[in-house]
Amino acid sequence: VVDIPPADRLLGFSAVSKSLADTVLVPAGYTASVLYALGDPLTATTPAYRNDGTDTDMENRAGDHHDGMEFFPLSSTGSASTTANDRGLLAMNHEATTDEKLSSFFVHANGGTMSLPRPAAEVDKEMALHGLSVVEVRLNGGKWAYLKDSGFNRRVHQQTDVELSGPVRGNALVVTRYSTGGTKIRGTLNNCGTGKTPWNTYLSGEENWAGYFTRAATDDAARGDKSVVSLKRYGRDQGASSRHGWETGGRDDKYQRWNISKTGASSDGSDDYRNEMNGMGYIVEMDAYDKTRPIKKRTALGRYAHESAAFGKVVAGQPLAVYMGDDSRNEYIFKYVSNAVWTAADATPADRIATGDKYLDSGKLYVAKFAADGTGQWIELSIANPLIAAYAGYKFADQADVLVNARLAGDAVGATRMDRPEWCSVHPITGEVYFSLTNNSNRRAEPSGSSQAAPDAANPRAYTDMKGTSTQQGNVNGHIIRVREGAAGAAATGFTWDVYLFGAEAGAAAASVNLSGLSADQDFSSPDGLAFSTATGICWIQTDDGAYTDVTNCMMLAGVPGQVGDGRKLTLNYPRANGTTLSVDTYVGKAATPDTLKRFLVGPVGSEITGIAETPDGKALFVNIQHPGETTASSNVGDPARYTSQWPSNAGYGAGKRPRSATIVITKNDGGRIGT
Ligand code: FEO
Ligand code: CA
Ligand code: CA
Ligand code: CA
After folding, report:
1. What InterPro entries has UniProt attached to this entry (predicted)?
2. What are 605-628's pLDDT values in tens digits?
3. Hey, whose CA ends up nearest to atom 3 of ligand 1?
4. What would the mean pLDDT of 293-314 be, rounded to a whole number?
5. Spatial contact of 541 and 494, defined as CB atoms under 8 Å apart
6. CATH code of residue 553
7. Whose CA is nearest to atom 1 of ligand 1?
8. How far is the CA of 441 from the centre of ligand 3 (A)?
């Protein structure tokens, strides 16, 4: 266990300036090196990545769009460890691919097929690039490298068997042609944020999976049941087309399953894929150390657009709390509380997946309701709650139905609609829970239609035309909210909260937009990845922005936060068309200072900074650079001069000039902890 240094010994580096350069910038005294990129081989016999669109065998290579990531230390003998600093496994999410008009153009020779039907070979490649990977990394002679021939290396993709575990397992809602008992599903999809369990396993959140499925234009009538309500609530209206057209790859079941209408198109006639989408949308648990153990979707934590999963402070004899967000405009924040209470011996169990069964398959799911007075409530999503049992909008059959349709259950109890909850993380000292709320174009002072919401205390910004344009509306720059649990800790049903930071441009109006007083060394927009270091206590904040990218590429900042209630109450006023004023009270933490918030990294052009992991001593920091160059037009795929980014080839890594998502490792030149 590393002692966290006092706050006055943190952030001793010079802030990195905002930048539009096609490179990774870190402070003087630090080194960032590319470690593991899209297509890198994961077996001894897989050829090097040519990076010209002709590569094959994607099941044995790094996937695309590196996202959330965790580090699993390995002892010198190759056993699971919690303390090793020179050898370990990186487990990570491969969320998506860089696409335009159906095709993932950078991974196909001529940009791929931009119309339907998609060729099977292209679909196979794209399905293989989505999922998870595990890769061994080692520190040798002061340099980190990944091992292409490690026996630990692993890929999980859309053809990998994954078990359904917990209350939804075996329910009629997840019976498919593939699993008539409703016990398993193929693959895990659009994996975004991550988490690490107190028993040393990997958690992965399935986020924008709904977009991969298609529905026929007349499917509502064909179904004629309440599943239509569920599908609409999760973003699949009838007639919705799929992101890549994978369902057109052929008559084989592995393609047809992406069409969740009853189509009659499969090769053997048993073509009912109507429940396929109910198998996506969960927190997934994997034992990174042991590829013989099943991967499990932990259905007790609910089904929605998952990001990270953060454990509250672990206390012997108390239940475990897991905090989670649903990243879509105006969706909810959730907490799962285990029925089992924590036993210290479970920190290093003989069977890690069985330990997951113990803590993650049986518990209560809550949704957050924030009040205007700075307090809030966790409302249990139980079929026994009359608001849920008698909900007019959807007739829940049982608790499994509540979990599969957690969004509808949140609607039933009147949960607070948030500004896109992305990652969450728990402060290692105070135990307070931080949630990034990335932005929300549907937060309006005068909402119109059910998709828009008025500002409230917890989501108080709804300014328009911040830059004098008509394209930026709502909460353009996002904020980070934090929650302090009541005296019952993990099991508390009441909390207090405030806003840790409001994203803003340094020059924006201090009274209405730049509410945290950000200066040029620390201004940011659209917080997304967020994780506390357990070695330094630094709150790392990563951005996925579109609003400030005319001035700077996406970035990572280091924060040293105070705690809930250390700031002030403020009132925001919005003039309405009828001449009246809408006043919203909220609470913001201490204003940022150069000692408490500093920009640490700026990424290459078109990239999002996401995913962060560290060695236990905090001296190596792994960060993912996702989709550099995604702003490239697919028609320019043959002309490297017209790529908006050539990273990481311009950093000396790998063949070809096509941009690649990649993991970097950051070390301090004096060997110290990162961010000190
Ligand atoms: Fe995959 Fe919500 O970011
Ligand atoms: Ca994210
Ligand atoms: Ca995002
Ligand atoms: Ca992204």
Report:
1. PhoX, TAT_signal
2. 999 999 999 999 999 999 999 999
3. 192
4. 98
5. no
6. 2.120.10.30
7. 192
8. 13
